[in-house]
Design a protein that fits this description.
The complex is a heterodimer of chains A (787) and B (108). With 787 residues, chain A is of the alpha/beta class. Chain B has 2 domains: 64 residues, Alpha-Beta Plaits (2-Layer Sandwich), CATH 3.30.70.20; 44 residues, no CATH class. Chain B has 108 residues and is an alpha+beta fold. Classes of the chains: A alpha/beta (787), B alpha+beta (108). At the A-B interface, helix 20, helix 22 and helix 23 of A face helix 2, strand 5, strand 6 and strand 7 of B.
């Protein structure tokens, strides 16, 4: 530290119309501070206008009177920005400005003794001064990026977002585990609200992608491993063999004609159910497919694909008949490594396995079908006269899915509309708990209600039994009228819910992404919805939660917006990243454990190293380090320690306790600031330091504060589950428990360290809290280290 | 006398290869037992330097004072700040004395 140039601080106090003079003795503060170490210039500004300030500051800065500025007083945010940028042009690094607002610390006109206020203001300015001395110029970090993005899942969300990316001139790698694109939506036949064919929209996207040189689609591929970080992800993908050469196949279909095997082409849940008579079930709705067949669900790429596991041994019929020699039965798995700047996960959903809902006989009776199967029945089946629909089959049910899947009501209504379009005489019974048609879907509900022969029955059926002529007999109770009924129907449709797809589960495990209790990707729902807790990896569409098609396309686009910054040649990162002091580091790995975003990796010597692009600058690592070897730049442990040392503990008299608070800048700080702005009666005993997250407060700092005689240390963070950095408040809570246990051993009251949860609008609670804490500390008596 | 480990507190430094107390012990006496908790393997060789007590992030270690100097109640507890160290000394009569020092250059 000795080789550094001595800092020269210029202090500017904004005292508009002598406002500060009214309630504090400004002259004595200026007089005293102008004599402190490193203070080289001091001025009281009377004119709050930006031009006026700039005129006097700029000249003096350029004449070299000072090299950093401490601003005291309340400057509006816009003015701060303006001053920082203007002085930046004059050569002052923006990180060499320190803003010290006396009012937010509770020094206001109304309350308290003038002498105490002056003393407190003096301390606060001295604290800011201590910090200003240690400020360092910083420049935004420039990290190498990649102009390419990986989208996992080529469903409706993935495809549409891929199109958008190509429009933005970004290279897109689309990875899909099936042989063709389209995903779940491609197996639907009609979409609400327009009762249109989904292939129309999908085909539109596919056409765009097929024409674009920037889009690359990897079908039959899965993610194998992931290395690197945002801007430099290296993703290994494994491609299953297609057994048909993609370039050569012209999709003439000769091979399908000669293929000797055919299997039922049905959706997954039924194949795993215990169907008594699957052939009967298939008669209604299932088609058959050959071992060699077009790609599924949408034949893009157009090359055919062979399901090798159903090929008869030794059969080479397709190979012999192919006019272009595209069949390659000896193909093997291949691996490719993709270099991408960011990843978008759109792995979608699976239908809830309805055979688990035993009471409705799915899988037992051929004419009990899921709403997904109903899609094709509606288009292909001969006339059906009486149809029953059961809503919430397995949803909003403690035994199955406890949540609402948001789309099933609208899906059923859509199917009823389609049914009535085709067969106006058909009769429908809809068993429901509540019809949840949010937003404009209500129109569907109103439309269906106006149909003849559509009966809504509130309450789900008690029993489903086979009836006469292959139909079903249903016993149910209408809970609105209390009447029991027995109905004969031809087809029963179960509206099953949505669960995260198998692919989502695999992806989550492979990429180590947190999941919520339902298995969907976890995120900070209201503030950062598509957040995956891993920087540069975002989640869009139904793998994030149940939603309809429009929402899922929308959500994946939001996610895409969030990863755009990583898709440039250089990524600009805020320079306030944590820096490790390797001379002190003991490789204990606590920073790695506690980083909520997995930003650390082991370097070649086994030391933790930071991937700056992944870091969200919360400071959890700084709080975690047992050796205080990690410092956030611009918020270094030295700067805070210096601030703590600057606190004089007897400014309100020996008996009054002094509280030092560390307030999270997302919530608690605003609560305190609003309390001051609203002129609430904040006790003068508290002085606070703003921190990026409660989790950034190191125990050593608390130990410092206590050993310098501060009576109470208050750490205030967000409420549980509301932390922007996932778990900062929990981290600090466990750490303070460890510390208070130690204090007990030392015969110091554990109450001297206190953790509180505050919300942004808890200003009154903040005041009450400080007051009660002051009372509590008075009862405890002064800190034994107070001198 | 050897360090006493509060077993509920010790998290074995998340079961890393070398715990902090293991790294810092000048006599290489600390290690992890089969339950991944810190343990002093040669109690007689400990010379009470208290390095392990100072470094333990969980506050799970405590040094018992040799019986020639103190008995049961007597304790010597360090509290580490960023560049400060604060000692609490409790003698056999339960009398508490505290000492506060600023370390030189530890923040550089």
């Amino acid at each position: 530290m000795n080789d550094k140039i001595t800092p020269k601080v210029g202090m500017f106090i904004l005292d508009e119309q002598d406002q500060l003079h009214e309630f504090i003795d400004l002259d004595s503060i200026v007089q005293k501070l102008s004599r402190t170490k490193n203070m080289s210039y001091c001025e009281v500004l009377k004119n709050p206008k930006t031009e006026g300030i700039l005129a006097s500051v700029q000249v003096k800065f350029q004449s070299g009177q000072f090299d950093r500025i401490l601003w005291v007083g309340r400057f509006p945010t816009e003015q701060k920005k303006c001053l920082e940028s203007e002085l930046g042009n004059a050569g002052l690094n923006p990180y060499l400005n320190e803003w010290c607002d006396l009012e937010e610390q509770g020094i206001g006109k109304e309350r308290g003794d003038r002498a105490i206020k002056t003393q407190k203001a003096m301390i606060i300015v001295q604290m800011a001064m201590a910090r200003t001395r240690l400020l360092e110029p910083l420049e935004p970090l420039q990290l190498p990026g990649q102009e390419s993005v990986l989208i996992i899942g080529a469903g409706v969300a993935g495809l549409h977002t891929a199109v958008t990316f190509t429009k933005l001139r970004k290279k897109v790698h689309l990875v899909e585990k099936e042989s063709g694109v389209g995903g779940r939506v491609a197996s639907l036949r009609r979409l609400f609200p327009r009762i249109c064919d989904p292939h129309c929209g999908l085909e539109f996207a596919i056409q765009k992608l097929s024409k674009s040189a920037l889009a690359e689609i990897h079908t039959l591929a899965r993610i194998k491993s992931l290395e690197g970080g945002p801007g430099h992800f290296e993703v290994k993908i494994e491609k299953q063999p297609r057994y048909v050469n993609e370039q050569q196949c012209n999709a003439c279909g000769e091979c399908t004609k000669v293929c000797p095997v055919s299997v039922p082409d049905h959706s997954e849940p039924f194949s795993t159910s215990k169907a008594q008579d699957p052939t009967a079930a298939q008669k209604i709705w299932s088609s058959r497919k050959k071992a060699i067949h077009p790609a599924e669900p949408i034949a893009f790429p157009s090359a055919f694909v062979i399901d090798r596991h159903i090929c008869p041994p030794g059969c080479r019929e397709c190979e012999q008949v192919c006019p272009v020699q595209a069949v390659e039965l000896e193909q093997q798995c291949s691996e490719t490594t993709l270099k991408v700047g960011a990843i978008l996960i759109a792995t979608g959903w699976d239908p809830y396995p309805l055979f688990k809902v035993e009471e409705y006989g799915y899988g037992l009776y051929p004419n009990v079908v899921s709403n997904m199967e109903m899609e094709s029945i509606l288009e292909d089946s001969p006339e059906i006269k009486v149809v029953g629909f059961i809503q919430c089959a397995g949803s909003r049910d403690e035994r199955h899915l406890t949540y609402c899947s948001a789309v099933c009501c609208s899906v059923t209504l859509k199917q009823v509309i389609r049914l009535k379009e085709k067969w106006p005489q058909a009769r429908c019974y809809i068993f429901y708990q509540d019809i949840r048609t949010t937003a404009f879907d209500e129109e569907l509900y109103q439309k269906v209600k106006s149909f003849d022969q559509v009966i809504f029955i509130r309450g789900n059926p008690a029993t489903v039994k086979p009836g006469d002529n292959g139909g079903l007999k249903i016993r149910a109770e209408d809970t609105l009228t209390g009447s029991e009924m027995a109905l004969d129907i031809d087809l029963l449709v179960l509206a099953g819910g949505m669960v995260p797809s198998k692919g989502s589960q695999e992806t989550a495990q492979l990429l180590k992404l947190p999941q919520n209790p339902f298995g969907f990707f976890e995120s900070h729902a209201p503030c950062h919805p598509e957040e995956s807790q891993r920087t540069g990896i975002r989640v869009g569409g139904a793998c994030w939660g149940p939603m309809n098609i429009a929402r899922s396309v929308e959500s994946s686009h939001r996610a895409a917006m969030d990863i755009m910054p990583f898709l440039n040649e250089t990524i600009l990162v805020d320079p306030r990243i944590p820096v490790l002091n390797l001379a002190k580091c003991d490789k204990c790995k606590r920073c790695m454990e506690e980083c909520p975003f997995s930003s650390f990796y082991f370097d070649a010597d086994g030391f933790p190293a930071l991937d700056a692009a992944k870091c969200r600058q919360c400071g959890s690592c700084m709080g975690a380090c047992p050796l205080a070897a990690i410092s956030m730049r611009h918020f270094t442990i030295q700067q805070i320690a210096a601030q703590i040392k600057a606190v004089k503990t007897s400014f309100i008299g020996k008996e009054e306790p002094v509280i030092l608070a560390f307030l999270c800048q997302n919530d608690a700080y605003y609560a305190a600031k609003t309390a001051a702005d609203d002129h609430l009666q904040i006790p003068p005993n508290i002085i606070f330091i703003k921190v990026p997250c409660a989790g950034a407060v190191n125990s050593a700092l608390i130990a410092d504060a206590l050993s310098f005689g501060i009576d109470g240390v208050l750490i205030a963070g967000c409420r549980d589950g509301q932390c922007h950095y996932v778990k900062g408040n929990q981290l600090v809570e466990t750490r303070s428990v460890d510390l208070t246990d130690k204090l007990k051993k030392m015969f110091i009251e554990p109450g001297r360290v206190r953790f509180e949860q505050l919300e942004i609008r808890d200003s009154q609670r903040y005041v009450d809290l400080v007051r009660s804490y002051v009372e509590e500390l008075k009862r405890m008596g002064p800190n034994p280290f107070k001198n | 006398m050897p360090p006493k480990v509060e077993r509920e507190k010790c998290d074995g430094c998340k079961a890393e290869k070398e715990t902090l107390c293991e790294q810092v012990c000048p006599g290489d006496l600390m290690t992890l037992d089969e339950n991944k908790k810190a343990i002093c393997r040669m109690p007689r060789d400990c010379w009470d330097c208290m390095s392990c007590v100072k470094i333990c992030p969980k506050g799970a270690l405590e040094t018992r004072i040799p019986y020639q100097l103190g008995f049961h109640v007597a304790k010597l507890i360090p509290l580490m700040g960023t560049d400060t160290i604060t000692w609490t000394l409790i003698d056999i009569n339960g009398k508490v004395e505290r000492f506060h020092y600023i370390n030189r250059g530890s923040l550089d």
